[in-house]
Amino acid sequence: MTMIIPRQYPPVPLLGVSVLCHQKNEVLLIKRGKPPFAGHWSLPGGMVEVGEPLADAATRELLEETGVSAEITRPVETFDSIQRDDDGRVRNHFVLTVFCARYMSGEARAGDDAAEARWFLPQDLADIVTTPGTPDRIVRLLAGR
């Protein structure tokens, strides 16, 4: 029996992955097509499936959302993304593990939950609407790669 856990007001935190895919001086972002943060630019990623190793989930999600294949490295960061409603109840709680990845192949295109996929220079991130902390995370993690 498969248990479906709602993404809004979940009874437990949900496990996801994000991928900081880079080539030369650019990073690949997707414009989120669904809540939370629909319309915001973000690192590609999504939910880990039961029995799926984190790195495999990162590889799968990157390909599904962007059409890009990359060399996934070790996890570089894990953080909580928690949003509360006006009453203070937890609306969303994701635990996200970020992987850095070096671009290998594929043409960036929106797929799966993404409304758009595009390469950005880190200095241009201040001019777009992103998910919370994304520009700082990208600059910090690229500096440490």
From TrEMBL:
One GO molecular-function entry: hydrolase activity
Q: Which domain of life is it from?
A: Bacteria
Boundaries of each Nudix hydrolase domain copy? 10-143
Q: Which family does it belong to?
A: Belongs to the Nudix hydrolase family.
Recorded protein name is NUDIX hydrolase
Q: Which organism is it from?
A: Roseibium algae
Query: Hydrolase: is it a keyword of this entry?
Result: yes
User: Where are the membrane-spanning stretches?
Assistant: none
PROSITE patterns listed in its UniProt record: NUDIX (PS51462), NUDIX_BOX (PS00893)
Q: Name the keywords, alphabetized.
A: Hydrolase
Q: What cofactor does this protein call for?
A: Mg(2+)
CDD domains under this entry? NUDIX_ADPRase (cd04673)
A Pfam family matched in the record: NUDIX
